[in-house]
Amino acid sequence: MNMAYRAFCEAFFAALDKGDFETLGAMMDPDFVCHEAEGLPYGGAWRGIAGWKALCKQIVGAWAGVKAVPIEFLGETADTIVLRLQLTGRSRRTGTAFDTTVMELWRFRDGKLREIVPYYWDTAALVAADTP
Asked: What PANTHER family does its record include (predicted)?
C-alpha cells in the first residue's frame, strides 16, 4: 500500500475534526466532487471546497455527534484508495442513534483529492433513524 495515501487520509480526517477548511481546501483538486447517496438527507454531488463545507453543514444539521472514523485502509491503485469508516451519530429529528460502516473510494489527481464516492452499508437504517 502507498503509505502516502494513508497519510493523506489521516491528515484529511485530522483537519476535518478540527474544522480546518483552509487545509481541507488545499488538499482538494479544483474539480473535487463528493457523491452522496440520493436517499440520504444530504444526497447529491457536492463540488469544490464550497460544496464540501455545505455538505458538512448538512451532515451536522441532520446528525448530532456524528463521527466518521477510519477503521481500515484497503486496496489502492496509482490514483485511488479504498477505506472503511465507522459512522456513528444520532438523528437530530428523532433522537435515534445509528452505528454503521461506509466504504469510500477516493480518487486523486496530482497529489490532490479529486473525488469521494461513499458506499454505505445500510442507507435504509440511516433513513429509518431519521424518520419520525
From this structure: BLR2505 PROTEIN
